[in-house]
Amino acid sequence: MDHSPSRHGQWSSRLAFILAATGSAVGLGNIWKFPYITGENGGSAFVLVYLLCVAALGVPLMMAEVMLGRYGKQTPINTMRMLAKKAQAGQGWQFLGWAGTLAGFLILTYYSVIGGWTLGYVFYAVSGRFSGLSGEGASGLFGNFVGSPLVQVGWHTVFMLMTMWIISRGVRRGLEKAVTTLMPALVVLLLIMVGYAMTTGFFLKGVAFLFTPDFSHFSETSMLTAMGHAFFTLSLGMGAIMMYGAYVPETTSIGTTSLVIAIVDTVVALLAGLAIFPIVFAHGLEPGAGPSLIFETLPVAFGDIAGGTLLGTLFFVLLMIAAWTSSISLVEPAVTMLIERFNVTRLQASAWVGLTAWLLGFATAFSFNVWSEVTVLGMTFFDHLDFLTSNLMLPLGGVGIAMFAGWCMTTESTRTALGLHQGPWYSLWLFLIRFVAPVAVSIVLLHAVGAF
Ligand code: PFF
C-alpha cells in the first residue's frame, strides 16, 4: 500500500475527517428533504425503511468509499482507474468515477437553488417577517418567494458564488473550523425547536406519525425514495466520501468513523422530523406539502416564541452553512478532476464548474414558478432531476462501488485497510457489501419499475 499522502493534501487529524464528512452528510437532505419526503410518503413506514437502508447499506458503503479513497488518494475517476488496474479488473470500473462526478455536479445545480432559499429566509428572519405569522401567512410568504424567477435566480447566484469561493481556495482550510463549532450549534437549535414542538400539544401525534409503523401510505416508489435518500443524506454513491477519504491518514479506523458519521446524520434528520411534524399538525398544515414544508412550518414557530427573530435568524444561518459544507463536497470531485486532467488552476476549474452548474440551475429555479406547469409524467424539471440523481444514480453508483470493493479487491487488502482483524465485523461487512447491497438495490429498483 502507498503510505504517502494525497497530492491534494491530507486531513490534520481523524477528527478533522469526521467533521468534514459530517459536514458533507448533514445538509439540506436532513433538514429540508427528509421531513418533506417523509410527509409525502406517509410517515413511519418510510422512516423505518430509511433507517434500515442507512444501517444495512449506508454504513458498509461509507466504509468502502473511505477505504477506496484512501487507497487511491486521487479523484474518484483516477482512484477507480488505478485500483481497477491493480486488481486487473478491467477499465470499465472507472466509469463509476465519471458517473459519480456527473451525479455530484447535477445535484449541485439544484442544491444551490434550495441553498438560496435558506439565504433568502435568513433575510426574512432578520427583518422580523415571521412575527405573528399564521400557517396561511407562512404559505403565502413562501409562495411569493419561490414565485419570483428573479428572486430565485438571485439567491441561487449568491449561493453558487459562495460555494465556488470556498472550492477555489481549497476545501480543507475553512471547512474543519466551520464544522467544529457550527454543527453542534445546529443541533442545539434543533433541540430548541423540538422543545417548542413539545408545547404545541401535538408532539405525540408527530412522534406517532414518525414512529408507529403504518404501511397504508407506502407505495413502490416510497421504498425507492427511502433507499435513495439513505444514499443522498450520507453523500454516498457518487464519490464525495471517496474524495474526502483520499485525505484520510492511515491510522484512522474506518469502521468507527463511518458509524459516527451515520449516527450524527441520522440524529439530525430525526430531530428535524420531531421539530416539524408537531407544528404541521398543530397548524392544520399538510404533511405532504412537498419541498415547501419546512419553510411553511418553522417560520410559524419562530413567529410564536420569545426571541423568535433571533432564533429564526440563527436557524436559517446554520442551515445555510450546513448546505454550504455539503455543496462543497458535491463539486470537489468535478473540480479536482479538471485540475488533474487538464492541468488548469483550482480557480479556473472552479469557475468552469460553477458557471455551468449555475446556468443549469436556472431550470430548477424556474421549476417553482414560470415552468411549474411544464411537466413530464406529472413531474417538473426539478422533480426529474432529483429522481434521476437520488433514486437512480446514487444507488446504482453505490452498488458499483460496493461490487468493486467486495468482489474485485482481495479480502486480505480490504481486511487490512478496514483494520477489522478480530470479531465478526469483517465478515458482516463483506456479506453486506457483496450480497445485500446489490440484491437489495436491484429488488427495490425492479419493484419500482413494476417488474414484480
Ligand atoms: N448529504 C447531503 C445532504 O444530506 O444534504 C447532500 C449530498 C452532499 C449528497 C454530497 C451527495 C453528496 F455527494
Question: Could you write a compact summary of the structure shown?
Answer:
By secondary structure, this protein is mainly α.
Using brief descriptors, characterize the structure shown.
18 helices, 452 residues, Hydantoin permease
Percentage of residues in helical conformation = over 70%
CATH architecture: Orthogonal Bundle
Q: Which fold name fills CATH's third level, the topology?
A: Hydantoin permease
Bound molecules: 4-fluoro-L-phenylalanine
What general form does the structure show?
globular
Report Rg: 21 Å
CATH superfamily: Hydantoin permease
Average pLDDT, rounded to a whole number, is 92
DSSP summary: helix tally? 18
Q: Report the sheet with the most strands, covering strand number, pairing sense and barrel closure.
A: none
Uncertain segments: none
CATH class: Mainly Alpha
Order of helices and strands: HHHHHHHHHHHHHHHHHH
- Give the domain tally: 1
Q: Helix- and strand-based class?
A: mainly alpha
Distance between the termini: 44 Å
Let me know the number of strands: 0
Percent strand equals: under 5%
